[in-house]
Structures are given as structure tokens and as C-alpha cells.
Write a structure and sequence with these properties.
By secondary structure, this protein is mainly beta. Helices cover 0% and strands 59% of the residues. A hairpin with a 2-residue loop joins β5 and β6.
Length: 109
């Protein structure tokens, strides 16, 4: 169901100087297949929390959440996963697309 390297908290991190994030986004994965995304928007001093379910089959992670009563499901290829770094690319996404299509994480210390 999961790779133990995914468990715990991760922060979204991008090295591209053209990508400016106005938020701090943390993903926390649990053994039970749930994870929480906390987004803190710096300019608005506001926090948003969304709970997801996830499953991993091979190198593909599928995530789902309920938005306004509808279940939204997205699958990503896990392109890197070790104890310090993780990257996902949405299945079918083009190269060099950040934020939603390609997500890069570093382990919170």
C-alpha cells in the first residue's frame, strides 16, 4: 500500500528562480493511507487544511479528497522518493510544469 519512506512531513520546495511561492505548503503522510496538506498563505496570513486519502501501486500514487461533496482523484508518477526528497509528476503532464502537475518535496527536519 505504501513505501515507508513517504511517512511523515514534507514541505513543497522548488529550485526554479522563476517560480515564486506565496505560501508554505506541508504534506503529512500517515500509515493508514491518509494525509493532510497544510497551506499557509503569507500575504493573507491565512491557513488552509485539506485531508486526502492516498494509495501507492508500484511507482504511482493516487490521491483523493472530497470538495463540495464531490470526490476528486488524481494520479501521479513518483519520480523520486528517498528519506530526504520526493517528486511527483501528474500522469499525462508535460515537462517543466510546476505546482499542480509537478510537485517537489523535501523532508521537514
Amino acid at each position: 500500500m505504501y513505501n515507508s519512506n513517504i511517512l511523515g512531513s514534507w514541505s513543497e520546495h522548488y529550485d526554479d528562480p522563476d517560480l515564486m511561492m506565496d505560501s508554505n505548503v506541508t504534506h503529512t503522510f500517515s500509515e493508514d493511507g491518509s494525509y493532510i496538506v497544510r497551506s499557509f498563505y503569507l500575504l493573507m496570513n491565512e491557513e488552509n487544511i485539506i485531508t486526502y486519502e492516498y494509495s501507492i501501486q508500484g511507482d504511482v500514487i493516487t490521491v483523493s479528497t472530497s470538495i463540495e461533496g464531490n470526490t476528486v482523484t488524481t494520479s501521479y508518477d513518483i519520480t523520486k522518493l528517498n528519506k530526504k526528497e520526493m517528486s511527483w509528476k501528474m500522469v499525462g503532464a508535460i515537462e517543466n510544469s510546476y505546482g499542480y502537475d509537478i510537485i517537489h518535496f523535501v523532508r521537514e527536519e
